Batch of 2 targets.
Target 1
Amino acid sequence: MAFRTALRRVAAVNVPATRGLAGAGAAAARRAYATTQLTHPDPTEDSASGKMVREHAPYMVTTYSRPPPVFVKGKGSYLWDLEDRKYLDFTSGIAVNSLGHCDEEFSKIIAEQAQELVHASNLYYNPWTGALSKLLVESTKASGGMHDASSVFICNSGSEANEAGIKFARKVGKVLDPSGNKVEIVSFQNAFHGRTMGSLSATPNPKYQAPFAPMVPGFKVGTYNDIASIDSLVTEKTCSVIVEPIQGEGGVMPATEEFLVALAKRCRDVGALLHYDEIQCGMARTGTFWAHSSLPKEAHPDILTTAKALGNGFPIGATIVNEHVASKIKVGDHGTTFGGNPLACRLAHYIVGRLADGKLQEGVKAKSEVFLQGFEKLRAKFPELIKEVRGKGLILGLQLSEDPTPVIKAARERGLLVITAGTNTLRFVPSLLVSEQEIEEGLRILEGSFEAVMVKA
Ligand SMILES: Cc1ncc(COP(=O)(O)O)c(C=O)c1O
């Protein structure tokens, strides 16, 4: 409905007839018209992309529904498809390519380390697993986050990092209460913690859980940001509470500081661990090294998980713990074949060094402002459609009143990649090095995409 109503207001600037106008109005109208042009129509069935997809798709388990373009190259904030068309990427591989695509030093390190040592297993030491662990602990403390961070388990993905956190919490619960009564794990509505059975059991979304029920026993679900329910939710039986300081997949929903402080206090009172999942919102995405770096010390976690931007596209995850947790984990309790390999760890060591830099983080805050100003203009122009602007730094969401799928297609066909989250949320998680000009370019395409979708409705 909103698409249609608003259409009538913008239709006047959306037709070639506006060429007849004069002055600034005409320029604005021409710009609006230009931004509604399809510069990147989805590849057709008989294009090179269409042919490749037809050949490959039957062999791929259909866990994803993908649009037609096939991406073959990336640099900075841009991707190129098989038809050699350039797209501005505001998804950065779902909050992964924070240094942009194919950062020069990143690519150089891959090539170099690939010729030195890629894997020798966790049976032996190598120079990079420990160096990365040390840097993560030191950077975390220096950022004002998790003041008692002490050691790290390195794995290959976000789900695995959370899985380790969940297993460590169960072990701590068993050590604290050998009767086996302290094993409950609490998570929250609209959370996303991963797809493995443990992390999925903490992801209370029927769409993800129902086909694979029964879930792991002992998981409880609370209401995010509801302070009043914390006491009944988190009890002596709780071994850990897992929570995203900003829910990403759930629709870019920030937790309030009061909520996290109250949650942390309750955890301490009943001897439960507090586990922050910063897989999407961490690593400088909010403008501080961790999203929780801005919280008071008493709200710091016992377990902190990261992945995504930690590898800038190379698979890696990490579970950071304090000594209270680490002291309960013994040789043989957990393991991984690939996790902590020297190639992934040397890359992540370089990436952490870049993302822990205060100047880069200040840049994130400044760029966030450019987005927010643009979003406010869009909201003023499309008030029925854009209901709310949420998020922090460069994890931002526009809450729409309707399904954003048509806008996403319209943007893609104009050379801009954006994604959804939660219910009708348009999510923006670009490279943290995105330039102001690129942001302006993306906002212009977005405006044209909203207009275009309304024209069709
Ligand atoms: C907050 C959060 N936790 C965990 C995961 C799972 O990470 P992965 O897909 O690397 O297993 C994701 C992925 O989107 C996430 O956003």
Target 2
Amino acid sequence: MKKLIYYAGVMTVIIMLLPMIIVRSCGPAPVPEPKDEAEPVKICEISVYNHLTGVTERVDLEEYIKCVLAAEMPADFDMEALKAQAVAARTFAYGRISGVYRSKQGVHDGIDVCTDSGHCQAWMSKESAMKRWNILFASRNWARISKAVNETRGIIAVYEGSVANTLFHASSPGRTENAEDVWSGKSVPYLISVESSGDEASKGYITSVAVSVGELSEKLNKTYPHAELEGDITEEIEIIDFTAGGRVKTLRVGSITMKGTEFRSMLGLRSACFKIDFIDDDLMRITTTGHGHGVGMSQWGANALAKTGGTYREILRHYYTGIDIIGISDYEAIAKPN
Ligand SMILES: [Zn+2]
């Protein structure tokens, strides 16, 4: 009888506990102990002034870089050249965001960048880029640009612990320029003349324009009101010397001595690497080689390096002497130690 009462008691306990056991085993799994938190992905935003619409937007830095890449470099360039361009463009943008570099006063004060290539960097919306490209290649082009940006996410170039000024241009005539030969000022250790090969593959690498003496005289007088052109034109223009990068450094035009870059700007030439041939008493032919100011990375040279196996890091280190290539998070850890 005692045994019977004992078994009845055990069964009662089991019957009472069973639902609790079942409910517990079907409920939510216990919350695991939190592990060490992974480093959060840094969200970096940039304010962009659209110079065509007058609208300013804050956008994700990486999305902005995709639109710069779409406007600055042909999407069918080698992937490593696209990546080098992405890092150069991101470094420029981050220089503005971080306040290391500022834009010219009065154009878009308080806003990081604008979409005017003549002032900041070229920029093109995804929608515009897709329309501009051949419909057969548009999706592929955007995918290539996205890949180049995504695979270099957050990476910038720095020199001795400070954000580098990663200037770039379309093509160079064999060598890039020293920064101080293009813009007056101190030399920049990482913006010095280096070899650039393969640039001749670019469209318009060598271009000729005809300029009449009348046109030259008119433009000269706009810039230099007291300049005089007298006598035989062949005697009036004289190239005096060249830069380390092979462009015209100084020349004399009539009574004025000017920099090759000023002559280029005055006549809207593609490059300060030019030669002048006199066709007759009234007309001359100016032939330029390369395109752009010539400082920093040559885009066509970068593509040529990439085609011979150069990685984006090798391309950047070639054109920006002595730089380091690091993540923005690492840079900020160095720049602003906690
Ligand atoms: Zn701007």
